[in-house]
Structures are given as structure tokens and as C-alpha cells.
Write a structure and sequence with these properties.
Length: 181
């Protein structure tokens, strides 16, 4: 009784990856031999028997084609090559990060130059830079200082980046995002 309930409640697992051998549900398939030679369109059962004679599997490569394209190849080798290709693609992928630089409307020249140098370094690495100018107290009445500072940043950074999000107010702070060229 306990065994029945366990099997009853188990999920049916769907096979991952391409269909192979008897899981191919098309009556006719286009077959490519293990050597790369095109064998033409043939009955699926005949193609499976040819693959079994060679000690290999019939794997569906292009299931949406009419008729589906299948290749005679070892399933383990096929999965290994697919995994290697996926890892190589993942390695080539560049993850873009958003770096934030915080300023005040009364930031001095040396501090401004230091933060600008960091921003240029981030942009040259390929990361986006978010400039935040925080206003405190009565500085909020002089928002023109923040606008002037943002314009100055845009001019100084023009060589390595372009404005993705133009300067805008968000509560007591002004935000601008610059992306690399």
C-alpha cells in the first residue's frame, strides 16, 4: 500500500535535452551519418537500426524542420560537446555592473577630480556609472548648483561614456546614469 502511494504521488519526469532513438516521434527523418555524410530521408525505425549497428544513438538535432533532422552520434559525446559550448558562451559573457559615485553640490575641485577619475576607470572597464548628488537642508533651494555639476560631469566624461538617464530629482537627491560607449 505504501509503495502504491509513493508511485502515485511521484511526478512524471520530462526528459531533458534532445530526443533520441525511440523517443523520436516522427515517422520519417532526415539522417546524417556519424562521418557527416547525408544519408537522406528514411523511416525512423530503419535509421535507429543503422545507428544501433554502429553502436551509436540517433539524436534529433533539428526537431522543427520538416522532416526532423537526426544525426547518428554517441549521446554522451553529444551532451559533453553541448556542455562545453554552453560553458564557452558563458565565459565570453560580460556582466555589466552599476557603480555609484556620490557627490554633494559643494564638492571641492580635488574631490571632484578624484571621483571623476574613478568614474572614467569604471567606464573603461565597461561598467555603468550612477552619479548621485545629495542635497542637505537649505541646499535643496539651490538645485541649480546640482544641475551645473551634472553638466560639468557630462562634459568631462564625454570621451568614454554617454548619458543613459538624464539628471532628475528623486526626493532630496539628483541622479544621472552614464553608460560606456
Amino acid at each position: 500500500m505504501a509503495e502504491f502511494k509513493q508511485n502515485y504521488f511521484q511526478r512524471k519526469t520530462r526528459h531533458k535535452g534532445p530526443r533520441a532513438n525511440h523517443r523520436i516521434n516522427s515517422p520519417e527523418v532526415q539522417v546524417i551519418a556519424s562521418s557527416g555524410e547525408n544519408l537522406g530521408i528514411m523511416n525512423t525505425t530503419k535509421a535507429i537500426s543503422i545507428a544501433k549497428e554502429e553502436g551509436l544513438d540517433l539524436i534529433e538535432i533539428a526537431p522543427n524542420a520538416s522532416p526532423p533532422v537526426c544525426k547518428i552520434i554517441d549521446m554522451g559525446k553529444f551532451k559533453y560537446e553541448a556542455q562545453k559550448k554552453a560553458n564557452k558562451a558563458k565565459k565570453r559573457q560580460k556582466k555589466i555592473e552599476l557603480k555609484e559615485i556620490k557627490l554633494r553640490p559643494v564638492t571641492e575641485v580635488h574631490d571632484y577630480n578624484f571621483k571623476l577619475k574613478n568614474a572614467l576607470r569604471f567606464l573603461s572597464k565597461g561598467d555603468k556609472v550612477k552619479f548621485t548628488i545629495r542635497f542637505k537642508g537649505r541646499e535643496l533651494m539651490h538645485s541649480n548648483l546640482g544641475n551645473d555639476l551634472m553638466k560639468r560631469i557630462q562634459e568631462d566624461i564625454k570621451s568614454l561614456g554617454k548619458v543613459e538617464m538624464s539628471p532628475k530629482f528623486d526626493g532630496k537627491q539628483m541622479i544621472m546614469v552614464i553608460q560606456p560607449l
